[in-house]
Amino acid sequence: MANKPNQVSDQLVTWSELEGKVVLITGASSGFGWDFSINLAKAGCKIIAAARRLDRLETLCNLINKSSSFNTPLAMPLELDISADSSVIEAAVQKAWTAFGHIDVLINNAGIRGSTSTTLQLSNEEWNNVFKINLDGTWLCSKYVASRMRDAGIGGSIINISSIFGVNRVVGTGSLAYSSSKAAMHTLTTVMALEFGIHNIRVNAIAPSVFRSEITKELFQMKWLRRVSDKIVPQPFFYDATVDPSLTELIRYLILDSTKYVTGNVFIVDGGLTLAGVPIWSSL
């Protein structure tokens, strides 16, 4: 019995296992991607921060590297427009791969909300742009990263950042393109998980609701948001939810080697917002 505490502690997973993991994060210049980059760097991950705004990425990487206790840089910027042609994306992935010698994790975070036009008002251009970024970009980044993981025989983890608007119990007017692209991302996640499993590559998606971040700052200043969230969200602290730790802890979990059996899932992180479908248990 005296050895039992030690036996238990030996089974506990610590975040120190993340140290040295190489993580490519798209859409890292703001919002979720910015917070993911900082949080994972604190855990000792090596970050390849990708986005279109190179100046923002350089600021992010400088912030990470200056605060790091490691002797070598933990973060490097990568200019990447995931709406570009496939050859451009493939070249960027190759550059990312050579930066630290390999990639352990891909976080497909880049995406756009797009137009709030109704179905009859939505233009072909608006529809195509949302799908080009939210779905095509995710597919191509995953394809080129996974092919290199396969060839190197190292396996890895792909994490797709989706939305509760991709869940079939959530609908809203003016969200046709966005909701459709995120629902398609969930199918993309499960099919890739099925196909990549033989190469020891797991694929999961996270479907969050709205969180406090740089991008949503103005939204959370709206007085009506708290009144509504208090009535329709079961968790009382939903209004104060931040990306870190609400999402970053789940990201860390999905990176760990010990989650090698966790694949093909869509993790809903919304404080219970979508549980009822419609708030029949409360009054608006």
The description of the largest β-sheet is:
7 strands, parallel
Query: How are the strands of the largest sheet arranged?
Result: 3-2-1-4-5-6-7
- Give the class from helix and strand content and strand pairing: alpha/beta
Number of alpha- plus pi-helical segments: 9
User: How much strand?
Assistant: 5-15%
Q: Could you state the order of secondary-structure elements as H and E?
A: HEHEHEHEHEHEHHHE
Helix content: 40-55%
Oligomer: single chain
Radius of gyration: 19 Å
Q: Which blocks of ≥5 consecutive residues have pLDDT under 50?
A: none
Shape label: globular
Instruction: Tell me the span between the first and last alpha carbons.
Output: 56 Å
- The count of DSSP E runs of length 2 or more, i.e. the number of strands, is 7
Mean pLDDT: 87
